Amino acid sequence: MLVTNPLINNAAAAAVSSTTSLHHNNNNASRGAFIVMEGVDRCGKTTQCGLLLDQLRSDNIPAVAMRFPDRTTAIGAMINQYLTGGTDLDDRAIHLLFTCNGRAIVLGMVQQSDVGLPAPDAVIFLDLSQEEAQQRGGYGEERYETKDLQIRVRQRFQKLQQLDTQVPWHVVSAAQSIEEVQADISKIVEKTMAQAKHKKLGKLWQEGDYVAACMQEKNKNNEEDEDSEKEN
């Protein structure tokens, strides 16, 4: 199963799985791969997910597409109105809508909200700088597509990559051509699907790992604050 997973930004999600159920993770039955595709706005997640799904289906591999937020539902339509500037909501209201739609939106709560969920077999991070993203068509049409926020989102992804020792992260430069990005992703997916057949599906952020990661990040932030105070 291949899935892309958003943090605070709007992200597309695709899931690719074999005909065996994910519920088979407690035995040695073959299963599909669960892969997360991440990235800032306008990095090409929707395009690459579509291309990958088409490729897998052409190879007779059953594929399922998912999207977060899912704008096809009633709640998703409300989120879409908010993201595109059609309505204004306070932070608590939009957080609840995102949570009901399937994902948490508050950046600082992402890890905690994911504890115990199925762990992906791999994360594909489509890396794109804010400057490059800003040059792409449609940038700025949605509420969260601002320079400062997109820089913070990219930094958060990079920090999660450092903290997450459980799931393999694969960084793909989204500044390449569509065809080059597609080729890189295909290699990662092919390898991951082969490996996933023979291992159990894990869980995200086991409690001990989550606490250790939080403490590591807290200590690092304290050190940065101390260095900043010394400079001032």
From TrEMBL:
Determine the domain of life of the protein's source.
Eukaryota
Task: List UniProt keywords, sorted A-Z.
Answer: Kinase, Transferase
UniProt feature coiled coil, ranges: none
Q: Name one Pfam family in it.
A: Thymidylate_kin
Single GO biological process annotation from the record: dTTP biosynthetic process
| MF terms in GO | dTMP kinase activity; nucleoside diphosphate kinase activity
Q: Domain (Thymidylate kinase-like): give its ranges.
A: 38-102, 112-185
CDD domains xref list:
TMPK
Give yes or no: UniProt keyword Kinase: yes
Matches recorded under InterPro entries: P-loop_NTPase (IPR027417), Thymidylate_kin-like_dom (IPR039430)
Query: Does this UniProt record's set of keywords contain Lyase?
Result: no
Mind telling me which GO cellular component terms the entry cites? cytosol; mitochondrion; nucleus
Spell out the family assignment given in the record's similarity comment.
Belongs to the thymidylate kinase family.
Q: What is this protein called?
A: Thymidylate kinase
